[in-house]
Structures are given as structure tokens and as C-alpha cells.
């Protein structure tokens, strides 16, 4: 649970009061964060991605979507999906039934995404994306 609390703190710090933001840190791919609306259960979703351009197309390398859950005064961010356009990879932790409710969880993928996100957030801090000197462009 502590890890999911850390994810939420990091995501909400990056996004601030904005809907979408792009960060530029010298020598690294741009980092974008966006509030993409609620899940069917009403949980806020935030997408975080590094982006590049290939043949004029915006490519995510990678993108992770997190759902923000607030319960008992604690805010958590759970990874929901992983995407890497250069590799042609898209993975979702949950499968949904006809009513849009989670019906199956891929526990192995959930653990992998948790581990990947821990490493990614650590790298983002070392790359200066959380520093006061990073270039921050509010998109909306």
C-alpha cells in the first residue's frame, strides 16, 4: 500500500491543478501527464508517458495509466495499463464484464507494472522531472 501512496503523491505533484502538462528536462524525452477522466467506477485516471515522434506520429515510450483511489483519508494510485508504441505493446491489468466492471485481474502483470512504476518514478526524479528547474508547459 505504501508504494501506491507514493505513486499517488508523485502523480498529483506532477499534475498539480492542471488537466494536462508536459515537462522537458534537458537530455531526456518529454514527459506528459494528463487527467483522462474517470473509470466506470468513478475513480480518477491519470496517464503518464514519455513521448517521441516517428514518421510524424506521436509515440508513447512508455505510457502508464493509473487509477486514483481515495479511501479512509488515504489516496492511492494503482497501475491499470502499460503501452509502448515503439514495441507495439498494450497491456491491461483488468478485464471487464459487459457492465464495465472488473471481472478478472492479471496478478502477474499487476506486480510487474508496480515494479516498473517504482523504477520509472525513481528514474524520473534522477532525471530532474520533479525539480523546480524543469520546464513545465501547461496544456490545459
Account of the protein in words:
Helix 1 packs across helix 2 (107-126). The strands form two sheets. The protein has a seven-stranded antiparallel sheet with strand order 6-5-4-3-2-1-9. A two-stranded antiparallel ribbon has the order 7-8. Helices cover 24% and strands 46% of the residues. The chain has one domain (2-132). The protein is an alpha+beta fold and 140 residues long.
How do you describe this structure in short?
By secondary structure, the chain is α+β, with helices and mostly antiparallel strands.
Provide keyphrases for this structure:
two-stranded antiparallel sheet, 140 residues, alpha+beta, globular
Count of distinct strands: 9
Tally of separate helices? 2
Quickly count the domains: 1
Largest sheet: 7 strands, antiparallel
Report the principal-axis shape.
Answer: globular
For the termini, the CA-CA separation is: 31 Å
Helical content, roughly? Answer: 10-25%
Low-confidence stretches: none
Biggest sheet: strand arrangement:
6-5-4-3-2-1-9
Mean pLDDT: 95
Radius of gyration: 15 Å
Order of helices and strands: HEEEEEEEEHE
Q: Tell me the structural class.
A: alpha+beta
Q: Which percent band covers the strand fraction?
A: over 45%
Protein topology:
Layout: H1 2-15, E1 20-24, E2 31-38, E3 44-54, E4 57-71, E5 74-84, E6 89-92, E7 94-96, E8 102-105, H2 107-126, E9 135-138
Antiparallel strand pairs: 1-2, 1-9, 2-3, 3-4, 4-5, 5-6, 7-8
Amino acid at each position: 500500500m505504501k508504494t501506491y501512496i507514493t505513486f499517488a503523491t508523485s502523480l498529483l505533484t506532477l499534475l498539480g491543478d492542471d488537466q494536462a502538462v508536459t515537462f522537458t528536462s534537458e537530455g531526456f524525452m518529454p514527459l506528459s501527464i494528463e487527467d483522462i477522466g474517470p473509470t466506470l467506477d468513478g475513480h480518477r485516471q491519470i496517464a503518464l508517458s514519455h513521448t517521441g515522434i516517428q514518421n510524424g506520429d506521436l509515440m508513447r515510450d512508455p505510457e502508464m495509466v493509473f487509477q486514483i483511489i481515495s479511501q479512509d483519508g488515504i489516496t492511492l494510485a494503482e497501475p491499470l495499463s502499460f503501452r509502448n508504441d515503439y514495441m507495439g505493446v498494450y497491456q491491461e491489468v483488468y478485464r471487464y464484464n459487459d457492465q464495465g466492471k472488473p471481472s478478472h485481474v492479471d496478478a502477474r502483470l499487476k506486480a510487474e507494472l508496480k515494479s516498473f512504476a517504482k523504477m520509472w518514478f525513481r528514474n524520473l526524479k534522477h532525471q530532474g522531472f520533479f525539480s523546480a528547474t524543469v520546464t513545465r508547459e501547461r496544456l490545459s
